[in-house]
Specification:
about 25% strand; 7 helices
Length: about 240
C-alpha cells in the first residue's frame, strides 16, 4: 500500500512562499496516483501564482487525458501547463517572466514514472540515497562539463540560475525517468530550498530513521531551517508500507 505526506514552509529569509505541492494517493484520470512539487519564479506575487497555477493545470490535463501510458500522460500535461502559464503571464505586467520548476511522479505497481523541469528533485531512499532527476541549472551544466566539482556547485554564486522551466518558452523540454520502488523504500520530492540546505548523507539519515512520514517531513523542514532556511522549502514523501532499517 502506498502512503504519502507533504509539507511546505516559507523558510527563514523569504516573506512569500512560492513553492507548491500536490498529493493524491487516489487515481487522477488514468494515473493511479500523482505527486507534484513546483518552485515558482517571478516578482512579488508572480512566483507563487506560477507554481499553484501550473500544478492546477497539470491536474486538469491528467484528469482529461485519454492516454494510458504514464510518461505520455505526464508529457502532454507538462506541455499543456506550459502553454497555459504563458497565456496567464500575458494577463498582467506583474506576471511577465513568471515561471516554475516542476517535478512530477506517479507510482504504477512497483514502478515510478517521473518528469521534471528545473532543479526541484526526486530522490529514492532505501539503504542508500539516489538522486533520480537531474537539475536543469547553470551550475549543473558546469558540473557535467567538468568545469566545477559537485562540492563547488553547492555554494556557487550562480546556483539559482535555471536553464529550463515551465512558462519561460513556447516549448518546454522535460526529462523523463523511471525507477523501481520496493517495499520500505521512500521517494523524496523536494524544492531546492531543501536540497540546498541539507547534504544527501543527512537526507538519507533522516529518512532512514523515520517513524512516520509526517514526523519525517517536519524534521526535514526543521533541519533545512536550522541550516539557514535561505529559501522556501517543499517536501513530499511517498513510501511503500514496509520500512527498511
Amino acid at each position: 500500500m502506498l502512503k504519502a505526506y507533504g509539507l511546505k514552509d516559507v523558510g527563514r529569509c523569504r516573506s512569500i512562499n512560492q513553492d507548491y505541492i500536490y498529493i493524491s494517493e487516489k487515481p487522477i484520470g488514468n494515473l493511479p496516483n500523482l505527486f507534484l512539487v513546483a518552485d515558482g519564479m517571478g516578482g512579488h506575487k508572480a512566483g507563487d501564482l506560477a507554481s499553484e497555477y501550473t500544478v492546477s493545470r497539470i491536474r486538469e490535463a491528467v484528469e482529461k487525458s485519454m492516454r494510458n501510458i504514464p510518461l505520455q500522460i505526464l508529457k502532454s500535461a507538462f506541455h499543456y501547463a506550459n502553454q497555459k502559464l504563458i497565456e496567464k503571464a500575458q494577463e498582467s505586467e506583474a506576471y511577465t517572466g513568471m515561471g516554475t520548476t516542476l517535478v512530477a511522479a506517479t507510482v504504477v505497481e512497483d514502478t515510478v514514472y517521473i518528469a521534471n523541469v528545473g532543479d526541484s528533485r526526486l530522490y529514492k531512499i532505501g539503504h542508500g540515497i539516489e538522486q533520480i532527476t537531474k537539475d536543469h541549472s547553470l551550475v549543473e551544466e558546469m558540473v557535467r562539463m567538468g568545469e566545477i566539482s559537485k562540492e563547488e556547485a553547492r555554494n556557487h554564486p550562480e546556483k539559482n540560475i535555471i536553464t529550463r522551466a515551465i512558462g519561460v518558452s513556447g516549448q518546454v523540454d522535460p526529462d523523463y525517468f523511471s525507477t523501481s520502488l520496493e517495499p520500505g523504500e521512500c521517494l523524496l520530492l523536494c524544492s531546492d530550498g531543501l536540497s540546498n540546505m541539507i547534504e544527501d548523507s543527512q537526507l538519507l539519515e533522516i529518512v532512514r530513521r523515520r517513524e512516520n512520514l509526517r514526523l519525517c517531513a517536519q524534521e526535514l523542514v526543521d533541519t533545512a531551517n536550522r541550516n539557514g532556511g535561505r529559501d522556501n522549502i517543499a517536501v513530499v514523501l511517498v513510501e511503500q508500507d514496509e520500512v527498511i532499517r
